Amino acid sequence: MRRRISQQPATIQAFIDHKQATLNVILAMIPEKSTFSEIADLLGCSHEWVRVRLVKTPECLFKIGNRYLVPKGVAEEFVRSVLS
Fold first, then answer.
1. Beta-bridge partners for 50
2. Alpha-carbon distance 2 to 17, whole Å?
3. Which runs of consecutive H residues, i.e. helices, occur in the chain?
4. Beta bridge partners of 34
5. d(CA 59, CA 34)
6. ∠ CA 80-82-76, rounded to 5°
7. Mapping DSSP to helix (H, G, I), strand (E, B) and coil, where does residue 68 land?
8. Does residue 28 have a pLDDT over 90?
9. Mind listing the pLDDT tens digit for each residue in 29-45?
10. Per residue in 1-12, pLDDT tens?
11. Quick one: the chain helix, strand, coil %, rounded to 5?
12. pTM of the predicted model as reported, rounded to 2 decimal places
């Protein structure tokens, strides 16, 4: 028999506030132009995972030789989409 744990509205609101605060801190740490590995370090995932998802729209990225740089606006949208 399973028990259903009733969640308190204050607990849910605290979780939402914590998630928003975490997102704000990560967004504040994004530089103007970043690499895939810098974004991956902020999110705690591999740079390959970030690269595969961001290279789908290469027109939004800066290409310097063989390397891509991610502008701050694109990086912010990506982080928001991952953490929401």
1. none
2. 29
3. 9-28, 36-43, 47-54, 72-83
4. 70
5. 16
6. 35
7. strand
8. yes
9. 999 999 999 999 999 99
10. 566 666 678 888
11. 60, 10, 25
12. 0.80
